[in-house]
Amino acid sequence: MTLSRDAAVQVAQVLSEALPYIRRFVGKTLVIKYGGNAMESDELKEGFARDIVLMKAVGINPVVVHGGGPQIGDLLKRLSIESHFIDGMRVTDTATMDVVEMVLGGQVNKSIVNLINQHGGSAIGLTGKDAGLIRAKKLTVTRQTPEMTQPEIIDIGHVGEVTAVNTDLLNMLVQGDFIPVIAPIGVGEGGESYNINADLVAGKVAEALKAEKLMLLTNIAGLMDKQGNVLTGLTTEQVDGLIADGTIYGGMLPKIRCALEAVQAGVTSSHIIDGRVPNAVLLEIFTDSGVGTLISNSKPR
To answer: Which top-level group of life is the source organism from (predicted)?
Structure first.
């Protein structure tokens, strides 16, 4: 297909704008948490796979961590296993953990790997149990109300938190030109499995790899102020202020804290990206405007 003059000029402008970003990020590692709406639409899934393959082709090293909550919920429903949530976390008994491993480590992981490979990449699917990739321990949840003399400890089963990441394995794969695709399942000291929030796994992987960027795909336009405007170019101090004054609250808090902790631990920048936008990852990395909220230790120039 022959492009019109105007379309050709637009393509040239896009490539010209992308070039300095490509140069800046060649050889750098970017950790991308993939989930939400971006995993549900065929158009968005295809676009995400192309984005990842293009990043690798120009010398950037993407590492993908994926979620899969809706898919887990669907299979649990079909198996007549009831779902319960406490503070947004799925209570994971032994039967539920079996389903989590089947869905995340099998169905979802392999579909992402296959999609990336179909678009010319070399993706390899992993769970945290492969070579002890994601070491974990049981997450302790407590609840305190004014009338309680001491906090109540709530058992939510096989839900974990990351204690260590096997960076040797990831570095070996990246250096071999493979694209790691990680399901957020951790392994305990006794070999037990843990269901871990994908944002938290992505954050800890980014910290361990000393990544250039942590990118969290979401179902919203980004972090918004009280007037509904998307905020970007934020420092960690500004984010702390937005949490303190109540601008950031509720379900957005865990995601923002994950992004904030990654930057405070040495990741150059964290991004909260609107996964509903086609090619959102490339737009955030390779354009001046981006499509989400950027958090770093210093204000961008």
So the answer is: Bacteria
